[in-house]
Amino acid sequence: MADAVPGTVTDDQLVASGGYWAKVIPKGSVLRIVDLAGKQAVDFLCYNARDPSERYNAADTMKYAGTIFLTEGHGIYSDMGRILLTIIDDTCGRHDTIGGCCSAESNQLRYKEEGTPNCRDNFLMALADFGLGKKDIVANLNFFMNVPVEPDGGMALVEGFSAPGDFVDLRAEMDVLAVISNCPQTRNPVNAYNPTPIRLVIWKPDNTN
Ligand SMILES: [Zn+2]
Fold first, then answer.
1. CA distance 112 to 89
2. Using one digit for the tens of pLDDT, what is the confidence trace for 161-189?
3. CA–centroid distance, residue 122 to ligand 1 (Å)
4. Best CA proximity match to 130, nearest among 22, 30, 45
5. Rounded to the nearest whole angstrom, what is the distance from the C-alpha of residue 208 to the centroid of ligand 1?
6. What is the rounded distance in angstroms from the CA atom of residue 35 to the CA atom of residue 92?
């Protein structure tokens, strides 16, 4: 998969099932998120790396795209009306902008189980390395997570469409801090009840300096 990028790989990491990751993607470089086994939700936050008080804004991103389902060609925007990332390739075609991330507290409320592994704690551990914390967690994007919305407004977290090896390519339009929780959820179908590893490749397109 990493060998197939049209550019030079500068970072290539496997993130274990239930693991987390955070890195700065330099402007012009691309983050490829590979759903190795398929049907794996990848919870995602992003910030202006030079001033993380500027961060992903879900509502504005949906308004600019004119849809809640982001795919190739759509921008991922900050709360300052600036583009953080562009989705330049997407082999899956279905990602979620409204379902948010799982937390120990929401799992307790919904599934009556305490102390479950969860994306919110993953985000907090990943953000801590960059001096960020609870106040920096906003409504997040979920790659490969399937949250259909029905005509009557009904919504649900259901099994994803992604096949093994599906990926998205996100080109950084500024230096972007990208933060990922490889969702450990086993109590609803977003990971097909079987969380699996993902691969994260940072690559530099051949046509940039
Ligand atoms: Zn989760």
1. 39
2. 999 999 999 999 999 999 999 999 999 99
3. 9
4. 22
5. 35
6. 9
